[in-house]
Design a protein that fits this description.
The chain folds into 2 domains: 165 residues, Rossmann fold (3-Layer(aba) Sandwich), CATH 3.40.50.1400; 153 residues, Rossmann fold. Helix content is 31%, strand content 16%. It contains 10 helices and 10 strands. Strands 2-1-3-5-4 form a 5-stranded mixed β-sheet, with helices on both faces. It has a 5-stranded mixed β-sheet with strand order 7-6-8-10-9, with helices on both faces. The protein is elongated and about 65 Å long.
């Protein structure tokens, strides 16, 4: 499948029930600061987790890369994964040092944590924020996408797209993270975003909820009082959690056949249906539950606006990131 067709497939299947939006939605409201990274000898490397059991895990990352490649901001754009090919170690050889003098590394992760602080630097042989290779090539390690302030805007945009008929003043927004993740801060990031959106006063209530720790998403009926509830999974990609686990916890689909996967319950589950069939859960909005309307969106990381965030994290490095560490 070509880059363009993959890009279209990822976003169309996850948002078929959502009014279409153009690429660079966030860029339309403000000018992206790309002048510092736009050159003929700089490359972008997007790194993500990937999965050996979930074929959709890498799809958003590949789609964002295809969109950034289309814009011709960088001389080259590549992807690397912890659990898929090309691997993080393979990425060391992706860019010819004769033609590429700088490589911006942007983690496509929802938060800082074990992977961004330990695994990625180790596998890419990074010695700080700036690493100078023996070839003279400079690698710049940027902040993960989840740290960008535009995350708040994307969450609001996604909620508004899927719940266009709901009055925000009479709706509760639920941002759902996993909880109990090993060495990860996704729960903290979800709480931070909930606080920021709550302060805007757009929704009657905004809550951060979790799959495996209180406040539990399964308790949403008791946690919320509004006639409408909008649920946004706070994940980089759609997978078994967003396709199966959360819908079951919300009570909008039938019981799954196997347990949740967590550090204490390491059950590996294979997807049982096609991507299109799994994405059907996002196309049935709104769900009528006990006389209330529940709207369920695809994971936030599938939003096309992530391409803007990835570019801006690279551009942000040259204005701020270099102060946080030296070359090695």
């Amino acid at each position: 499948m070509s880059d363009v067709s993959l890009n279209d497939a990822v976003f169309s299947e996850s948002s078929a029930a959502i009014r279409p939006w153009p690429h660079s939605t966030c860029a339309q409201s403000r000018l992206l600061n790309v002048s510092s990274v736009r050159s003929d000898d700089s490359a972008l490397l997007i790194v993500a987790h990937g999965s050996t059991v979930n074929p959709d895990s890498s799809a958003p990352t590949l789609a964002h890369a295809a969109e950034i490649r289309r814009r011709k901001v960088f001389a080259d754009v590549g992807c690397a994964f912890w659990k898929e090919e090309p691997s993080l170690r393979d990425a060391l050889f992706l860019f010819d040092p004769e033609s590429i003098r700088e490589v911006y590394v942007v983690p496509n992760f929802i938060s800082e944590g074990y992977f961004t602080q330990t695994v990625i630097p180790r596998e890419l042989e990074l010695n700080g924020r700036i690493t100078k290779r023996s070839s003279g090539q400079i690698w710049k390690y940027c902040e993960p996408v989840g740290n960008h302030s535009m995350m708040t805007e994307l969450l609001l945009k996604r909620a508004g797209e899927v719940a266009q008929d709901a009055n925000p003043a009479q709706a509760t927004l639920l941002i759902v993270a996993h909880g109990t993740d090993l060495n990860e801060n996704s729960a903290v990031a979800a709480k931070r975003e909930a606080e920021k959106i709550r302060a805007l006063g757009k929704f009657a209530a905004v809550l951060n909820v979790y799959m495996e720790e209180p406040p539990l998403v399964s308790d949403w009926k008791n946690l919320t009082k509004t006639p409408s509830v909008v649920v946004v999974p706070f994940f980089i990609s759609d997978g078994l959690h967003s396709y199966e686990d959360i819908p079951v916890l919300l009570g909008i689909t039938k019981e799954r056949s196997t347990r949740l996967r967590s550090p204490k319950r390491p059950t590996v589950r294979q997807p049982t249906t096609s991507r299109a069939a799994r994405g059907e859960v996002f196309r049935r909005n709104p769900y009528n539950v006990d006389g209330r309307s529940l709207f369920y969106t695809p994971s936030i990381g599938t939003d096309s606006g992530f391409a803007d965030i990835i570019i801006e994290q690279a551009a942000k490095f040259d204005s701020e990131g270099s102060r946080r560490g030296g070359t090695s």
